[in-house]
Amino acid sequence: MFRSLGLFASALCPDPSCHRPKCMFNHGESSRKRKETVEEKEPVTGHETVKSLGINGGRATSTSSQAQPKPGSSKAVPTNAANSLGHHAPVLASKKPRVEADETKGKGTPAAAPEVIVNPMRPPSIPTINLKLSPQPYADRQKGLQTLFQQYTKLYRPLLTEHPDLAHTSALRQEAETSSTCPNIKTYKSAIHHAAVSVSRRAAPDSPTHPSVGTLKESRAAYEKLEKDLAGRLTKEKVAQYLLPLDQFKIWAYPDPRNQDLLNGGDEPDCQGIHQTCSRCKKPFVVSSKYLQSRSGECQFHYGKIQPERIEGKRKWIYTCCRRERGEAGCEEGIHVFTDGDDDAKLAKRKAFKTVQQVWEERGQAGTEAKSKKVADVVGMDCEMIYTTGGSSLARVTVVDQSGVILLDEKVRQPVPILDINTRFSGLHPGELDDAVMDLEAVRSAVCVFVGPESVIVGHGLENDLRALRLLHDKIIDTATIFPHDKGPPYRRALRDLVKEKLGYFIQERTADLGHSSAEDAKATLEVLKWKVRDDAA
Question: A GO CC term (predicted)?
Fold first, then answer.
Protein backbone atom coordinates (compact mmCIF):
# COMPACT_ATOMS: atom_id res chain seq x y z
CA MET A 1 0.00 0.00 0.00
CA PHE A 2 2.73 2.46 0.99
CA ARG A 3 4.81 1.57 -2.08
CA SER A 4 2.04 2.27 -4.56
CA LEU A 5 0.98 5.52 -2.91
CA GLY A 6 4.52 6.79 -2.49
CA LEU A 7 3.93 8.31 0.94
CA PHE A 8 7.53 7.77 2.07
CA ALA A 9 9.21 8.27 -1.31
CA SER A 10 10.79 11.55 -0.19
CA ALA A 11 12.18 10.20 3.09
CA LEU A 12 15.63 8.62 3.25
CA CYS A 13 15.76 5.03 4.37
CA PRO A 14 16.77 4.80 8.07
CA ASP A 15 18.65 1.53 7.47
CA PRO A 16 22.24 2.36 6.44
CA SER A 17 22.67 -1.10 4.85
CA CYS A 18 19.23 -1.60 3.31
CA HIS A 19 19.00 -4.37 0.68
CA ARG A 20 15.24 -4.70 0.50
CA PRO A 21 14.12 -5.07 -3.11
CA LYS A 22 10.89 -3.14 -2.57
CA CYS A 23 11.71 -0.69 0.18
CA MET A 24 9.19 2.14 0.59
CA PHE A 25 11.84 4.76 1.40
CA ASN A 26 14.00 6.83 -0.92
CA HIS A 27 17.38 5.36 -1.93
CA GLY A 28 18.70 8.23 -4.06
CA GLU A 29 22.10 7.65 -2.37
CA SER A 30 22.87 4.10 -1.45
CA SER A 31 23.25 3.36 2.21
CA ARG A 32 26.53 1.60 1.65
CA LYS A 33 27.92 4.54 -0.27
CA ARG A 34 26.80 6.97 2.45
CA LYS A 35 28.47 4.80 5.03
CA GLU A 36 31.74 4.69 3.11
CA THR A 37 31.63 8.44 2.63
CA VAL A 38 31.24 9.00 6.38
CA GLU A 39 34.15 6.70 7.11
CA GLU A 40 36.41 8.43 4.58
CA LYS A 41 35.85 11.87 6.07
CA GLU A 42 38.17 12.85 8.87
CA PRO A 43 36.59 13.68 12.24
CA VAL A 44 36.18 17.32 13.11
CA THR A 45 38.37 18.37 16.00
CA GLY A 46 37.87 21.14 18.55
CA HIS A 47 40.06 23.49 16.45
CA GLU A 48 38.90 23.48 12.76
CA THR A 49 41.63 23.92 10.12
CA VAL A 50 40.36 25.66 7.00
CA LYS A 51 42.82 26.04 4.08
CA SER A 52 40.54 27.78 1.62
CA LEU A 53 36.94 28.68 2.24
CA GLY A 54 34.42 31.02 0.62
CA ILE A 55 31.39 32.53 2.34
CA ASN A 56 28.18 32.62 0.35
CA GLY A 57 25.07 33.53 2.19
CA GLY A 58 26.39 32.01 5.42
CA ARG A 59 27.18 28.62 3.76
CA ALA A 60 30.60 27.13 2.94
CA THR A 61 31.22 26.58 -0.78
CA SER A 62 34.01 25.11 -2.88
CA THR A 63 36.92 27.30 -3.86
CA SER A 64 36.31 26.72 -7.57
CA SER A 65 34.34 29.94 -7.80
CA GLN A 66 36.93 31.93 -5.83
CA ALA A 67 40.35 33.23 -6.83
CA GLN A 68 43.06 30.76 -5.85
CA PRO A 69 45.78 32.07 -3.55
CA LYS A 70 49.33 32.07 -4.80
CA PRO A 71 51.80 29.68 -3.21
CA GLY A 72 53.47 31.30 -0.24
CA SER A 73 50.88 34.00 0.00
CA SER A 74 50.24 35.20 3.53
CA LYS A 75 46.53 35.68 2.93
CA ALA A 76 44.68 32.52 2.06
CA VAL A 77 41.29 33.74 3.22
CA PRO A 78 39.74 37.14 2.44
CA THR A 79 39.27 39.56 5.30
CA ASN A 80 35.49 39.39 5.24
CA ALA A 81 35.63 35.60 5.19
CA ALA A 82 37.90 35.53 8.23
CA ASN A 83 35.50 37.78 10.12
CA SER A 84 32.62 35.59 9.16
CA LEU A 85 34.48 32.55 10.37
CA GLY A 86 35.11 34.14 13.72
CA HIS A 87 31.40 34.90 14.17
CA HIS A 88 29.99 31.64 12.87
CA ALA A 89 32.72 29.31 14.11
CA PRO A 90 30.55 27.13 16.36
CA VAL A 91 27.97 26.61 13.61
CA LEU A 92 30.52 25.79 10.92
CA ALA A 93 32.48 23.43 13.13
CA SER A 94 29.35 21.48 14.05
CA LYS A 95 27.67 21.22 10.61
CA LYS A 96 30.35 21.15 7.87
CA PRO A 97 33.37 18.85 7.46
CA ARG A 98 36.75 20.23 6.62
CA VAL A 99 36.92 21.46 3.00
CA GLU A 100 40.22 20.61 1.34
CA ALA A 101 41.83 23.03 -1.13
CA ASP A 102 43.10 21.99 -4.56
CA GLU A 103 46.42 20.27 -4.66
CA THR A 104 49.65 21.94 -5.57
CA LYS A 105 49.74 23.95 -8.77
CA GLY A 106 52.93 24.17 -10.78
CA LYS A 107 56.27 22.54 -10.29
CA GLY A 108 58.32 22.13 -7.17
CA THR A 109 57.41 21.70 -3.59
CA PRO A 110 54.39 23.83 -2.78
CA ALA A 111 54.41 26.24 0.11
CA ALA A 112 52.11 25.20 2.92
CA ALA A 113 48.88 27.10 2.85
CA PRO A 114 48.39 29.23 5.97
CA GLU A 115 45.90 27.76 8.40
CA VAL A 116 43.07 29.65 10.06
CA ILE A 117 42.33 28.27 13.51
CA VAL A 118 38.68 28.52 14.39
CA ASN A 119 37.94 28.04 18.12
CA PRO A 120 34.39 26.85 18.68
CA MET A 121 34.51 27.85 22.37
CA ARG A 122 32.54 30.98 23.14
CA PRO A 123 34.24 33.81 25.01
CA PRO A 124 33.09 34.40 28.61
CA SER A 125 29.82 36.25 28.47
CA ILE A 126 29.30 39.48 30.37
CA PRO A 127 26.53 39.15 32.99
CA THR A 128 23.39 40.73 31.65
CA ILE A 129 19.86 41.24 32.86
CA ASN A 130 17.50 38.33 32.40
CA LEU A 131 14.66 39.67 30.30
CA LYS A 132 12.45 36.62 30.66
CA LEU A 133 8.93 37.80 31.43
CA SER A 134 10.28 41.29 32.13
CA PRO A 135 7.67 44.08 31.85
CA GLN A 136 10.41 46.71 31.44
CA PRO A 137 12.59 47.30 28.36
CA TYR A 138 16.19 46.22 28.43
CA ALA A 139 17.61 49.72 28.01
CA ASP A 140 15.69 51.07 31.00
CA ARG A 141 16.69 48.15 33.19
CA GLN A 142 20.34 48.49 32.21
CA LYS A 143 20.21 52.18 33.06
CA GLY A 144 18.60 51.42 36.43
CA LEU A 145 21.23 48.76 37.13
CA GLN A 146 24.00 51.24 36.39
CA THR A 147 22.45 53.80 38.76
CA LEU A 148 22.26 51.25 41.58
CA PHE A 149 25.79 50.04 40.91
CA GLN A 150 27.18 53.55 41.26
CA GLN A 151 25.45 54.06 44.61
CA TYR A 152 26.52 50.66 45.95
CA THR A 153 30.09 51.35 44.85
CA LYS A 154 30.12 54.58 46.86
CA LEU A 155 28.55 52.84 49.88
CA TYR A 156 30.92 49.87 49.86
CA ARG A 157 34.08 51.85 49.13
CA PRO A 158 35.84 50.75 52.39
CA LEU A 159 35.07 47.09 51.63
CA LEU A 160 35.81 46.84 47.92
CA THR A 161 39.48 46.06 48.40
CA GLU A 162 38.73 42.76 50.14
CA HIS A 163 35.30 42.20 48.57
CA PRO A 164 35.43 43.53 45.00
CA ASP A 165 32.20 41.82 43.85
CA LEU A 166 30.05 43.11 46.69
CA ALA A 167 28.65 46.15 44.84
CA HIS A 168 28.13 44.13 41.67
CA THR A 169 26.15 41.44 43.51
CA SER A 170 24.02 43.85 45.52
CA ALA A 171 23.16 45.96 42.45
CA LEU A 172 22.04 42.94 40.44
CA ARG A 173 19.92 41.58 43.27
CA GLN A 174 18.36 44.96 44.03
CA GLU A 175 17.53 45.58 40.37
CA ALA A 176 15.97 42.14 39.98
CA GLU A 177 14.00 42.66 43.20
CA THR A 178 12.73 46.03 41.97
CA SER A 179 11.82 44.74 38.51
CA SER A 180 9.83 41.81 39.92
CA THR A 181 7.63 44.12 42.00
CA CYS A 182 6.92 46.80 39.37
CA PRO A 183 4.17 46.12 36.79
CA ASN A 184 5.15 48.91 34.36
CA ILE A 185 8.01 51.17 33.39
CA LYS A 186 6.69 54.20 35.28
CA THR A 187 6.61 52.50 38.66
CA TYR A 188 9.94 50.81 37.87
CA LYS A 189 11.75 54.12 37.32
CA SER A 190 10.25 55.53 40.49
CA ALA A 191 11.26 52.45 42.50
CA ILE A 192 14.82 52.55 41.12
CA HIS A 193 15.13 56.20 42.12
CA HIS A 194 13.80 55.45 45.60
CA ALA A 195 16.20 52.50 45.99
CA ALA A 196 19.20 54.56 44.85
CA VAL A 197 18.36 57.38 47.28
CA SER A 198 17.87 54.84 50.11
CA VAL A 199 21.25 53.24 49.43
CA SER A 200 22.97 56.63 49.33
CA ARG A 201 21.62 57.48 52.80
CA ARG A 202 22.81 54.32 54.52
CA ALA A 203 25.57 54.31 57.09
CA ALA A 204 28.91 53.18 55.72
CA PRO A 205 29.46 49.49 56.60
CA ASP A 206 32.64 48.26 58.23
CA SER A 207 32.13 44.56 57.39
CA PRO A 208 30.10 42.40 54.98
CA THR A 209 27.80 41.46 57.88
CA HIS A 210 26.87 45.08 58.62
CA PRO A 211 23.12 45.81 58.38
CA SER A 212 23.80 48.37 55.61
CA VAL A 213 24.96 45.62 53.26
CA GLY A 214 22.43 44.10 50.86
CA THR A 215 19.20 44.99 49.11
CA LEU A 216 16.50 47.15 50.64
CA LYS A 217 14.66 44.14 52.03
CA GLU A 218 17.82 42.52 53.38
CA SER A 219 19.04 45.73 55.00
CA ARG A 220 15.64 46.43 56.51
CA ALA A 221 15.42 42.93 57.95
CA ALA A 222 18.96 43.21 59.35
CA TYR A 223 18.19 46.50 61.09
CA GLU A 224 14.96 45.10 62.51
CA LYS A 225 16.86 42.12 63.89
CA LEU A 226 19.47 44.46 65.37
CA GLU A 227 16.79 46.55 67.06
CA LYS A 228 15.12 43.40 68.32
CA ASP A 229 18.39 42.15 69.77
CA LEU A 230 19.08 45.50 71.43
CA ALA A 231 15.57 45.62 72.87
CA GLY A 232 15.94 42.12 74.23
CA ARG A 233 19.49 42.55 75.47
CA LEU A 234 19.68 41.31 79.03
CA THR A 235 21.18 43.55 81.67
CA LYS A 236 20.95 43.40 85.42
CA GLU A 237 18.62 46.39 85.42
CA LYS A 238 16.25 44.90 82.85
CA VAL A 239 15.97 41.48 84.47
CA ALA A 240 15.88 42.61 88.10
CA GLN A 241 12.07 42.43 88.16
CA TYR A 242 12.15 38.73 87.19
CA LEU A 243 14.47 37.61 90.00
CA LEU A 244 12.97 34.96 92.27
CA PRO A 245 12.43 36.51 95.73
CA LEU A 246 14.11 34.72 98.62
CA ASP A 247 10.78 34.19 100.37
CA GLN A 248 9.60 32.12 97.39
CA PHE A 249 12.63 29.81 97.31
CA LYS A 250 10.84 27.34 99.55
CA ILE A 251 7.62 27.50 97.49
CA TRP A 252 9.49 26.57 94.32
CA ALA A 253 11.68 24.00 96.17
CA TYR A 254 14.98 25.87 95.81
CA PRO A 255 17.84 25.27 98.25
CA ASP A 256 18.01 28.15 100.69
CA PRO A 257 21.28 30.07 100.23
CA ARG A 258 20.97 31.30 103.82
CA ASN A 259 20.97 27.78 105.33
CA GLN A 260 24.40 27.39 106.90
CA ASP A 261 23.83 23.69 107.65
CA LEU A 262 24.15 22.88 103.96
CA LEU A 263 27.73 24.10 103.92
CA ASN A 264 28.95 21.11 105.95
CA GLY A 265 28.85 17.44 105.00
CA GLY A 266 30.29 15.10 102.43
CA ASP A 267 30.75 12.18 104.82
CA GLU A 268 28.36 9.77 102.98
CA PRO A 269 29.21 9.95 99.27
CA ASP A 270 28.13 6.36 98.56
CA CYS A 271 25.10 4.24 99.49
CA GLN A 272 26.23 0.76 98.47
CA GLY A 273 24.67 -1.91 100.66
CA ILE A 274 21.99 0.46 101.95
CA HIS A 275 18.27 -0.13 101.42
CA GLN A 276 16.60 2.46 99.20
CA THR A 277 13.30 2.83 97.34
CA CYS A 278 13.50 2.82 93.56
CA SER A 279 12.51 6.22 92.23
CA ARG A 280 11.09 4.57 89.09
CA CYS A 281 9.00 1.59 90.14
CA LYS A 282 8.76 2.51 93.86
CA LYS A 283 10.03 -0.93 94.99
CA PRO A 284 12.62 -1.40 97.76
CA PHE A 285 16.09 -2.61 96.81
CA VAL A 286 19.67 -2.72 98.05
CA VAL A 287 22.05 -0.37 96.28
CA SER A 288 24.79 -2.30 94.48
CA SER A 289 26.99 -1.79 91.44
CA LYS A 290 27.59 -5.51 90.85
CA TYR A 291 26.23 -7.55 87.91
CA LEU A 292 24.56 -4.54 86.29
CA GLN A 293 24.13 -6.17 82.87
CA SER A 294 22.46 -9.28 84.24
CA ARG A 295 20.21 -7.17 86.45
CA SER A 296 18.74 -5.24 83.52
CA GLY A 297 14.99 -5.81 83.61
CA GLU A 298 14.61 -5.92 87.38
CA CYS A 299 12.77 -2.59 87.19
CA GLN A 300 9.75 -1.97 84.97
CA PHE A 301 8.69 1.66 84.83
CA HIS A 302 7.10 4.49 82.82
CA TYR A 303 9.47 7.31 81.91
CA GLY A 304 6.64 9.65 80.92
CA LYS A 305 4.34 11.67 83.13
CA ILE A 306 0.82 10.67 84.03
CA GLN A 307 -1.93 13.08 83.00
CA PRO A 308 -5.72 13.04 83.23
CA GLU A 309 -7.67 12.63 80.00
CA ARG A 310 -11.34 12.16 79.19
CA ILE A 311 -11.79 9.02 77.11
CA GLU A 312 -15.27 7.88 76.06
CA GLY A 313 -16.81 10.21 78.58
CA LYS A 314 -14.71 8.92 81.48
CA ARG A 315 -11.80 10.61 83.23
CA LYS A 316 -8.70 8.41 83.05
CA TRP A 317 -5.06 8.84 83.99
CA ILE A 318 -2.80 8.14 81.02
CA TYR A 319 0.99 7.87 80.80
CA THR A 320 2.43 10.19 78.16
CA CYS A 321 5.15 7.71 77.19
CA CYS A 322 3.02 4.76 76.08
CA ARG A 323 -0.64 5.85 76.46
CA ARG A 324 -1.23 3.15 79.05
CA GLU A 325 -3.52 3.70 82.02
CA ARG A 326 -2.37 4.11 85.59
CA GLY A 327 -1.67 0.78 87.22
CA GLU A 328 -0.56 -1.03 84.05
CA ALA A 329 2.90 -2.57 83.74
CA GLY A 330 5.77 -0.29 82.81
CA CYS A 331 6.81 0.17 79.19
CA GLU A 332 10.57 0.37 79.94
CA GLU A 333 12.98 -2.01 81.65
CA GLY A 334 16.14 -1.18 83.53
CA ILE A 335 17.78 -1.47 86.95
CA HIS A 336 16.71 0.03 90.26
CA VAL A 337 17.95 3.57 90.92
CA PHE A 338 17.27 6.17 93.57
CA THR A 339 17.52 9.89 94.19
CA ASP A 340 17.45 12.05 97.28
CA GLY A 341 15.13 14.50 95.54
CA ASP A 342 14.91 17.88 97.22
CA ASP A 343 16.12 16.66 100.62
CA ASP A 344 18.99 19.14 100.88
CA ALA A 345 20.21 17.69 104.17
CA LYS A 346 20.80 14.27 102.58
CA LEU A 347 22.36 15.86 99.55
CA ALA A 348 24.77 17.77 101.78
CA LYS A 349 25.87 14.45 103.33
CA ARG A 350 26.84 13.20 99.87
CA LYS A 351 28.62 16.47 98.99
CA ALA A 352 28.51 19.77 100.86
CA PHE A 353 27.02 22.89 99.25
CA LYS A 354 28.97 26.09 98.64
CA THR A 355 27.90 29.61 97.82
CA VAL A 356 29.35 31.49 94.86
CA GLN A 357 30.96 33.89 97.31
CA GLN A 358 32.70 30.99 99.06
CA VAL A 359 34.09 29.64 95.81
CA TRP A 360 35.42 33.08 94.94
CA GLU A 361 37.07 33.43 98.33
CA GLU A 362 38.72 30.01 98.00
CA ARG A 363 40.05 30.95 94.56
CA GLY A 364 41.31 34.29 95.84
CA GLN A 365 38.93 36.29 93.65
CA ALA A 366 36.94 38.01 96.36
CA GLY A 367 36.43 41.67 95.55
CA THR A 368 37.68 41.32 91.97
CA GLU A 369 34.37 40.68 90.23
CA ALA A 370 34.19 44.17 88.72
CA LYS A 371 37.70 43.74 87.27
CA SER A 372 37.23 40.26 85.85
CA LYS A 373 36.43 40.27 82.11
CA LYS A 374 35.15 36.69 82.14
CA VAL A 375 32.35 37.29 84.63
CA ALA A 376 29.01 37.76 82.87
CA ASP A 377 26.08 39.79 84.14
CA VAL A 378 23.54 37.23 82.92
CA VAL A 379 24.20 33.59 82.01
CA GLY A 380 22.07 30.63 81.07
CA MET A 381 22.84 27.31 82.72
CA ASP A 382 21.66 23.75 82.33
CA CYS A 383 22.89 20.53 83.91
CA GLU A 384 22.43 16.87 83.03
CA MET A 385 22.23 14.19 85.70
CA ILE A 386 22.80 10.43 85.82
CA TYR A 387 22.15 7.73 88.43
CA THR A 388 25.04 6.45 90.56
CA THR A 389 25.40 4.59 93.80
CA GLY A 390 25.33 8.04 95.42
CA GLY A 391 21.92 8.88 93.94
CA SER A 392 21.37 11.48 91.23
CA SER A 393 24.75 12.93 90.28
CA LEU A 394 25.92 15.75 88.04
CA ALA A 395 27.28 14.47 84.71
CA ARG A 396 27.47 17.59 82.53
CA VAL A 397 27.15 21.34 82.97
CA THR A 398 26.81 24.00 80.27
CA VAL A 399 27.00 27.76 80.75
CA VAL A 400 26.21 30.20 77.90
CA ASP A 401 26.18 33.98 77.71
CA GLN A 402 23.21 36.01 76.48
CA SER A 403 24.47 35.85 72.87
CA GLY A 404 24.32 32.06 72.95
CA VAL A 405 28.10 31.64 73.09
CA ILE A 406 29.10 28.61 75.14
CA LEU A 407 31.32 29.71 78.00
CA LEU A 408 31.63 26.29 79.63
CA ASP A 409 30.61 22.81 78.57
CA GLU A 410 32.21 20.20 80.76
CA LYS A 411 31.59 16.57 81.66
CA VAL A 412 32.05 15.47 85.24
CA ARG A 413 34.20 12.61 86.47
CA GLN A 414 32.24 10.39 88.84
CA PRO A 415 33.78 9.37 92.19
CA VAL A 416 31.33 6.47 92.64
CA PRO A 417 30.09 3.69 90.28
CA ILE A 418 27.46 4.57 87.67
CA LEU A 419 24.18 2.66 87.71
CA ASP A 420 22.35 4.23 84.74
CA ILE A 421 23.69 6.83 82.27
CA ASN A 422 20.07 7.98 81.71
CA THR A 423 20.58 8.67 77.98
CA ARG A 424 16.96 9.64 77.31
CA PHE A 425 17.26 12.68 79.57
CA SER A 426 20.99 13.30 79.95
CA GLY A 427 21.95 13.03 76.28
CA LEU A 428 25.03 11.04 77.33
CA HIS A 429 25.90 7.54 76.19
CA PRO A 430 27.84 4.76 77.94
CA GLY A 431 31.55 5.47 77.92
CA GLU A 432 31.29 9.23 77.37
CA LEU A 433 32.32 10.01 80.93
CA ASP A 434 35.40 7.79 80.81
CA ASP A 435 37.56 10.66 79.57
CA ALA A 436 36.11 13.27 81.95
CA VAL A 437 38.83 15.16 83.79
CA MET A 438 37.07 17.44 86.26
CA ASP A 439 35.29 16.22 89.36
CA LEU A 440 32.35 18.04 90.95
CA GLU A 441 34.58 20.36 92.95
CA ALA A 442 36.58 21.42 89.88
CA VAL A 443 33.51 21.90 87.70
CA ARG A 444 31.84 24.05 90.33
CA SER A 445 34.96 26.20 90.52
CA ALA A 446 34.99 26.47 86.69
CA VAL A 447 31.38 27.65 86.68
CA CYS A 448 32.27 30.42 89.10
CA VAL A 449 34.88 31.73 86.70
CA PHE A 450 31.94 33.11 84.68
CA VAL A 451 29.41 33.47 87.50
CA GLY A 452 30.13 36.01 90.19
CA PRO A 453 28.27 36.80 93.43
CA GLU A 454 26.25 39.47 91.58
CA SER A 455 25.67 37.50 88.35
CA VAL A 456 22.18 36.37 87.41
CA ILE A 457 21.71 32.69 86.56
CA VAL A 458 18.84 31.87 84.19
CA GLY A 459 17.40 28.40 83.77
CA HIS A 460 14.26 26.29 83.65
CA GLY A 461 13.67 24.23 86.77
CA LEU A 462 16.99 25.56 87.96
CA GLU A 463 16.63 24.15 91.47
CA ASN A 464 17.65 20.69 90.21
CA ASP A 465 20.72 22.10 88.48
CA LEU A 466 21.86 23.98 91.58
CA ARG A 467 21.41 20.88 93.73
CA ALA A 468 23.38 18.72 91.31
CA LEU A 469 26.13 21.35 91.27
CA ARG A 470 25.87 21.80 95.06
CA LEU A 471 25.84 25.55 94.50
CA LEU A 472 23.91 28.15 96.49
CA HIS A 473 22.98 31.42 94.81
CA ASP A 474 20.35 34.06 95.51
CA LYS A 475 20.09 35.75 92.10
CA ILE A 476 17.99 33.30 90.15
CA ILE A 477 15.57 33.64 87.23
CA ASP A 478 13.49 30.56 86.51
CA THR A 479 11.46 30.68 83.29
CA ALA A 480 9.07 28.22 84.94
CA THR A 481 8.18 30.92 87.50
CA ILE A 482 7.81 33.88 85.12
CA PHE A 483 5.52 31.72 82.96
CA PRO A 484 3.75 29.82 85.75
CA HIS A 485 1.50 26.80 85.30
CA ASP A 486 -2.24 27.33 85.54
CA LYS A 487 -2.35 25.16 88.67
CA GLY A 488 0.49 27.07 90.31
CA PRO A 489 3.51 25.59 92.12
CA PRO A 490 4.84 22.96 92.22
CA TYR A 491 3.50 22.43 88.68
CA ARG A 492 5.70 23.75 85.90
CA ARG A 493 5.24 24.20 82.20
CA ALA A 494 7.67 22.27 79.99
CA LEU A 495 10.46 24.31 78.40
CA ARG A 496 9.74 22.90 74.94
CA ASP A 497 6.13 24.13 75.23
CA LEU A 498 7.28 27.63 76.16
CA VAL A 499 9.74 27.74 73.27
CA LYS A 500 7.11 26.55 70.82
CA GLU A 501 4.53 29.07 72.09
CA LYS A 502 6.73 32.15 72.48
CA LEU A 503 9.52 31.64 69.95
CA GLY A 504 7.81 29.50 67.33
CA TYR A 505 10.34 26.67 66.99
CA PHE A 506 10.90 23.25 68.50
CA ILE A 507 13.54 21.84 70.83
CA GLN A 508 14.08 18.39 72.37
CA GLU A 509 12.67 16.67 69.29
CA ARG A 510 14.83 13.53 69.43
CA THR A 511 15.04 12.77 73.13
CA ALA A 512 14.30 9.08 72.54
CA ASP A 513 17.70 8.40 70.91
CA LEU A 514 19.74 11.57 71.45
CA GLY A 515 18.41 12.80 74.77
CA HIS A 516 18.39 16.41 75.90
CA SER A 517 21.07 18.87 74.89
CA SER A 518 22.21 21.00 77.81
CA ALA A 519 23.52 23.71 75.44
CA GLU A 520 20.23 23.84 73.54
CA ASP A 521 18.20 24.09 76.75
CA ALA A 522 20.46 26.78 78.23
CA LYS A 523 20.17 28.92 75.09
CA ALA A 524 16.41 28.39 74.94
CA THR A 525 15.88 29.69 78.48
CA LEU A 526 17.74 32.92 77.62
CA GLU A 527 15.69 33.37 74.42
CA VAL A 528 12.45 32.90 76.35
CA LEU A 529 13.59 35.52 78.88
CA LYS A 530 14.49 37.93 76.04
CA TRP A 531 11.02 37.48 74.62
CA LYS A 532 9.56 38.36 78.02
CA VAL A 533 11.72 41.49 78.28
CA ARG A 534 10.69 42.69 74.81
CA ASP A 535 7.04 41.89 75.40
CA ASP A 536 6.91 43.81 78.68
CA ALA A 537 8.73 46.78 77.14
CA ALA A 538 6.36 46.99 74.17
Answer: nucleus
